[in-house]
């Protein structure tokens, strides 16, 4: 079952930069895709388009398994984790993880168990009262993963999420994401420029090339990952 289909997408910025040209990609339910390629090849642009965050210049993008809102965008099935954790400094961990539910009109009281479940998934159940300034970079990233999971998305998009962290922390977080994938039905698209990370994490590697950005190679890794 396809979650997202991109057909011959091109994206030209107003500056004239052709970020993507004729890019096609289908994301199937249950996959763990690494989107791999050099800096500037359009990985972030492609991910934003998959999330419904960016206009396309030509081509078709569809979310065949999602409820589509009046603006033609998928409603609630997709969460995004950016490289910067972007937590609100004046809210504690609980309040930050509550945000996506708050935007949907769910009160803190009603959201409590969902928020605590999300924090438990990333091992931060004891830090719900802490403020972002009290947390390490890795912990802040865990909070932003919990925040992304609290709406129970089908598709989790991660844009070089751990690139700013030290290698040991990054490896721990990679293991957390793998465990999340193995123990839930979630589908992941993970942008990286690390060949190691892509081989370690995914069951399909989509390699992009630059100028213009598009899919250059697409490898299923049939034997690498199995769900528990
Ligand atoms: P990657 O994530 O692979 O590093 P990006 O998708 O960020 O690549 O960028 C692809 C190309 O589009 C690059 O040449 C980049 O400079 C350009 N680009 C990205 N965002 C914008 C923007 N908002 N305006 C103009 N050019 C952009
Ligand atoms: P990432 O690390 O996610 O690939 P970048 O560091 O390339 O992102 O870009 C950060 C922000 O700047 C993004 O919002 C991107 O769209 C924008 N951007 C990137 N390249 C350009 C560019 N050449 N002109 C204008 N905006 C850009």
UniProtKB/TrEMBL annotation:
<dbReference type="GO" id="GO:0005524">
    <property type="term" value="F:ATP binding"/>
</dbReference>
<keyword id="KW-0547">Nucleotide-binding</keyword>
<feature type="domain" description="ABC transporter">
    <location>
        <begin position="4"/>
        <end position="228"/>
    </location>
</feature>
<keyword id="KW-0813">Transport</keyword>
<comment type="similarity">
    <text>Belongs to the ABC transporter superfamily.</text>
</comment>
<dbReference type="GO" id="GO:0016887">
    <property type="term" value="F:ATP hydrolysis activity"/>
</dbReference>
<protein>
    <submittedName>
        <fullName>Nitrate/sulfonate/bicarbonate ABC transporter ATP-binding protein</fullName>
    </submittedName>
</protein>
<keyword id="KW-0067">ATP-binding</keyword>
